[in-house]
Amino acid sequence: VTLVAELRAALNNGEIAVHVQPKAGLADGTVTGAEALVRWEHPELGRVSPDEFIPVAERSGLIGPLTTRVLDLSLAAVAGWRSAGHDLGIAVNLSTRSLHDADLVDEVARLLRRHDVPADRLTLEVTEGSVMADPARAVALLHQLRDLGVRLSVDDFGTGYSSLSYLKRLPVQEVKIDRSFVTGLTEDGEDVAIVRTIVDLGRHLGLQVVAEGVEERSTWELLASMGCDLAQGWYLGRPMPIGELVPWLRTRE
Ligand code: G
Ligand code: G
Ligand code: NA
Ligand code: MN
């Protein structure tokens, strides 16, 4: 039995779940939302990493149903948080193939309606690399998503090509500084220079800047002093099952 067959089965038997990792304002620690990270718990293989099965899904045509499932679980979570009194956003990762999927816009619109979630509570994260695979097509799709009112974010920023020209052309509201520049920030002057430059660039372009991979308090404080907007990482919180987020928020109150 191949991984493709296993993944197809997993989509039908509830083995696919979403964990969420919180994101907070660096200035005051207010939690503004979370990133959805897909999880696959296979009864025999154990946990299979998305780094392993996303490429399989992309090659086999299962990425459409998988993305729909992640969006559905994520927006259901947002609806649940809203009814518990927490107005939080969710960020969902899009893969390269999803940026070429003409059905995606209708799917996103349908799921926002189904869960009665305002469009701006959903952020879709794309990497520069996935945009560059077919820029004309990706840019057109991003504009359609933006027209729905969904927020768009450039993930792993700084690791791709054409960062600057594409930042200008993409209808994005946010950049996420790749964690390779962030995790060791306090020990590396070059990373400090890079992160400072991205933060300034974001400010001048009117983009929210998120630092990912914040593992230590000292990194948090340095990023806050640079004027970076938001942080995500183990220092704030690890990815957790959806049902754990509200109890986790209560422990912070
Ligand atoms: O959290 P984790 O280490 O398992 O994530 C590994 C990689 O998988 C990350 O690059 C992340 O962006 C990606 N990933 C996690 N969830 C999703 C998802 O729902 N869709 C896509 N396309 N990628 C995801
Ligand atoms: O590619 P993307 O940035 O979407 O992937 C996010 C990945 O980073 C996930 O695999 C997630 O589990 C991981 N991650 C989240 N916070 C931290 C952190 O503080 N340190 C490290 N090393 N990894 C993190
Ligand atoms: Na991401
Ligand atoms: Mn990222």
TrEMBL record:
Residues 1-253 form the EAL domain. Signal peptide: none annotated. It comes from the Bacteria. This is Bifunctional diguanylate cyclase/phosphodiesterase. It comes from Blastococcus deserti. The lineage of its organism: Bacteria, Bacillati, Actinomycetota, Actinomycetes, Geodermatophilales. The chain holds residues 587 to 839 of 850 of the full protein.
